[in-house]
Amino acid sequence: MIRADSSQPTQRRTIIIGVALALILMMVVGIGVIANRQPVTVKIAVALPMWIEWYSQATKNTIELALQESNYRAGDRIVEVVYVDTSDPNDPDTVTSERAALEIALKDESIVAVWGSTNSAEAKNTIPYLNQVPITLMSAVATWPGLTKPGYAPGEPLIHYPSGRRNFFRVVPTDEIQGKVAARWIHQQGFRKIYIIRHNSIYSEGLAGILESHAVDFNLQIVGNELVEPSQMSEADFKALVGRVKEAAPSIVYYPGHLDKTFLVIEALRREMPDLVVLGGDGLTLETLPADTTLLEGVYATNVIPPIAKLESAAPLLKAYREAYGEPPPQNPDMILPAYESFRVLLKAIAIADSPTRIGVLRAMSELDTYNGAMGEWKFDVNGDTTLETINLLQLKHGMWVSVGVIK
User: Fold this and answer.
1) CATH architecture classification, 175-303
2) Are 256 and 198 a contacting pair, CB within 8 Å?
3) Is the CA virtual torsion 216, 219, 224, 227 positive or negative?
4) pLDDT digits over 262-300, tens only?
5) Hey, which CATH number is domain 41-173+308-388, 3.40.50.2300, 3.10.290.10, 3.30.450.40, 3.40.50.150?
6) Long-range contacts: 351-358, Cβ < 8 Å, 24+?
């Protein structure tokens, strides 16, 4: 007769109880880990020319609004901003290298994206460096097409991306659109003779060249085209310039100015020719206006930023800005729009990134789909450019840039 082993049920019960206790212990430990896990903190470096006080302050205000709305988070990640001053420490009224300033800031590895490049010259210098870091560079206003597209300068755009991967993104149309639209508007107004005055900069030379290339398309005649440096011009130089313009008798002056003392050129021309029509680019609207704008009254400028007051999708932003800070800066009230939109896009990329790292955020930026925000519905193309193409026509009225129409 074979006897059953009476110890087997006891052993089984012991094993079951042991497994249960182990599972309970694992659950307790897991809950403890989750409870003690702290949200990850990431940073965005915001590079600004602090010497342009109205622009820098308005940008800071706008970024603060975007952060407040998101509760200083991107998804479950805490977001902090590190402001990087691109002003020359030895001369606060001039700009130093944005790249040099960022090289110092980016020693902080918790910075996962950069917002900056307030002009194309800075972007041209900064992009290659950040491309090798690598880290995302978001610009609200850099417009030179060669930063992302071929056909504008030798080697562009590949020379800006030594790693072979794109890391530059922008939310406004490029100068190729702005220049062509300017030529079309000049034709539509019945003007035929254009005198071009430009600065020695990527932006000014580029925009002037784009308009000139489209002149033949609209039956426009270039009666003068010259380079000036207002900050280095004497009274005699201004007088000579005015004389040349008067002799050429243009129906309009095209002046894509944006450098220090830009408005001195227009003032000199208007003293002798008060009815002279002047059209500039968006760079003109970012310059600090003189206290007395009498001689500048009526000057036009194309702007790559849509008119915020006329854009339904931007109404909540405008309302929030007014409630928090009063009216947007009179020099260019529309400029808060791309600053806000571009920063919100960065927050979205950080939120959806598979990892809160520079590479993770860059990958997320490259994979973003259609975005519906304050500037309407749009997306980045394969070059990192926006699909938006609206150009806003501004006119200076009583010391304030006012939208007088949208042109395409």
Assistant:
1) 3-Layer(aba) Sandwich (3.40)
2) yes
3) negative
4) 999 999 999 999 999 999 999 898 888 999 999 999 999
5) 3.40.50.2300
6) 351/73, 351/74, 351/75, 351/77, 352/75, 353/112, 356/40, 356/42, 356/77, 356/112, 357/112, 358/111, 358/112, 358/113, 358/133, 358/134, 358/135, 358/136
